[in-house]
From TrEMBL:
InterPro entries: MFS, MFS_dom, MFS_trans_sf
Name of the protein in question: MFS transporter
Parts of the chain that traverse the membrane: 16-41, 53-72, 84-103, 109-133, 145-164, 170-192, 204-224, 236-253, 273-297, 309-329, 336-354, 366-388, 409-428, 470-489
SUPFAM superfamilies linked to this entry: MFS general substrate transporter
Membrane topology: Multi-pass membrane protein
Pfam families according to UniProt: MFS_1 (PF07690)
GO cellular component terms attached to this protein's record: plasma membrane
Protein's cellular compartments: Cell membrane
Domain of life according to the entry: Bacteria
Keyword field contains Transmembrane helix: yes
């Protein structure tokens, strides 16, 4: 018999309410860390220079947070949640301090890498700790609230960033993390019990390195392609080659690792595979399409950057309300299969509505369309984590939770890049006759307002026409996610902390042993 799992040794007599408060603070900290920078970028560039490296202030955080997610998940499974989440908070705060005192763009980008190394762990470990202190049936409503926290951070981040830049300085968008982070660190130190038993563990360094190389290449390819580097350039082709080679190397290593960083057997778990595929597709649609909503509001509707953030509130209202409602439904019924089907169907309708946006669309209609999109996004944000956590054995809880975040982030990165390419190509083609060189060079609300009326009307019409394919593709992706939802084999939500799914894993273990090869170890897809 194997040593007691982390789940069994960290969940006794803990102040659950206090822990949930600390986890909510940690999630808000990590989520705002992703969004607070956007409104401060012009001021940062004006002071530090480095306009050509502007996008790296955001990309650096996204890249590092994405690649470390599965590593944090596995470390939490091996060594316990408390020490790992405390380490993530300290790393995040260290990156925040270094970013706040940065004197040039290079230092700021390196600081954002460090911040992301902590931020990626914050999200993963926070969601995993909830699974350690609450059974799946009860944690549904908590995960629903946490989904609302993510949505709220999308609005709060840019608004808070703009407020701090206007009233203090851009340095404070990083220093503001310190009090919340220290508070969360103190509460976790007091409330969360450490792992009671320590056993000898082997860290899969080779798997971690190959997974990092694969994810880094994928994120860099989608982030740089079409903007910094041409899609067919030698560096971009090299990134593809590295990603493919790392993938095959990763599979070979994981088949033989005693404690694989991402057990291949998980991919033979129906809930894990389908839920993460849906999350990936929703990430493509959500991040890819919603990126263009503030642009539409500023360029076509003529609102200010701050106002465009406020106009996203209807979408966040829909997201938060349905995320919370989905959590309540899961907790009361113990079922969840129909929720992603319904929500992605509504998301497809919302994206179709956004594809009808034009130069004369009234703002109340724009708000309604965004509200529908939010309704569709909410349940998906809360269902995925709970469903996956419920469907895997305790020793794989952390890495399975990390996978949900990882697939959604990768989907978002690909969506932003792909939709950006579709939009830019369409706009360049439509405006080549009326603008020198076409495209979006120097293309903003101020420059458009200064154009002659006839040219301005043509430009705005071309702009909205170029947005339509983006939202239509996002609608199609949402339909695919909806259809995939029908393939989910629902595992009833557990009502106790130690209860694991019963029959599914025996079949998966046999399938994994035959397809992947080699025995199924504690780190594979078997139970502890």
């Amino acid at each position: 018999m194997s040593a007691p799992s982390v789940q069994e040794t960290e969940t006794v007599d803990q102040p659950v309410g206090l822990i949930i408060f600390a986890i909510a603070a940690v999630l808000l900290l990590a989520a705002i860390g992703q969004t607070i920078v956007s409104t401060a970028l012009p001021v940062i560039v004006a002071e530090l220079g480095g306009l050509d490296h502007l996008t790296w202030v955001i990309t650096a955080y996204l890249l590092s947070a994405t690649v470390v997610a599965p590593i944090y998940g596995k470390l939490g499974d091996l060594y316990g949640r408390k020490i790992v989440i405390q380490s993530a908070i300290v790393i995040f705060l260290l990156g925040s301090v270094l970013a706040g005192i940065a004197g040039n763009m290079t230092v700021l980008i390196l600081a954002r890498v460090i911040q992301g190394l902590g931020g990626g762990g914050l999200m993963v470990m926070a969601l995993t700790v909830v699974a350690d202190v609450l059974p799946a049936r009860e944690r549904g409503k908590i995960q629903g609230l946490f989904g609302g926290v993510f949505g709220l951070a999308t609005i709060i981040g840019p608004l808070l960033g703009g407020f701090l830049v206007e009233n203090l300085s851009w340095h404070w968008i990083f220093f503001v993390n310190l009090p919340l982070g220290v508070l969360a660190l103190g509460v976790i130190a007091f409330a969360l019990k450490p792992k009671g038993n320590r056993t000898e563990r082997k860290v899969d360094y080779a798997g971690a390195a190959l997974l990092t190389a694969m994810l880094s290449s994928a994120v860099l390819y989608t982030s740089l392609g079409g903007n910094t580097l041409p899609w067919g350039s030698a560096p971009m082709l090299a990134l593809i080659a590295i990603a493919i080679a790392s993938l095959f190397g990763f599979i070979a290593v994981e088949r033989r690792a005693a404690e694989p960083i991402l057990p291949l057997g998980l991919f033979f778990n129906n809930t894990f595979l389908i839920t993460n595929t849906v999350g990936f597709i929703v990430g493509v649609a959500m991040f890819g399409a919603i990126t263009f909503l503030p642009l539409y509001l500023q360029v076509v509707q003529g609102v200010s950057p701050t106002e465009s953030g406020l106009y996203l509130l209807p979408m966040m209202a829909g997201l938060i309300s349905t995320s919370t409602l989905a959590g309540v439904v899961m907790s009361r019924t113990g079922r969840y299969r129909l929720l992603p089907i319904l929500s992605t169907g509504i998301l497809a309708i919302g994206m179709l509505l956004l594809s009808t946006l034009g130069t004369e669309t009234a703002m109340p209609m724009v708000a309604l369309y965004m509200f529908v999109v939010g309704i569709g996004l909410g349940p998906v944000m809360s269902i995925g984590v709970t469903a996956v956590q419920n469907a895997v054995p305790g020793p794989q809880l952390g890495v399975a939770t990390a996978s949900v975040q990882m697939f959604r982030q990768i989907g978002g990165s690909i969506g932003v890049s792909a939709f950006g390419a579709v939009f830019s190509a369409g706009l360049a083609n439509r405006l080549r006759a009326v603008l020198p060189g076409g495209g979006t060079s120097g293309f903003d609300a101020v420059s458009i307002a200064a154009m002659p009326e006839g040219v301005r009307d043509t430009v705005l019409a071309g702009f909205v026409a170029s947005l339509q394919p983006v939202f239509l593709i996002a609608a199609g992706a949402s339909v695919i996610a909806c259809l995939l939802g029908f393939l989910i084999v629902e595992v009833p939500l557990a009502t106790t902390l130690r209860q694991e799914p019963e029959a599914e894993f025996e079949a998966e273990e046999a399938a994994t042993a035959g397809i992947v090869g080699g025995p199924i170890t504690e780190g594979g897809s078997g139970r502890a």
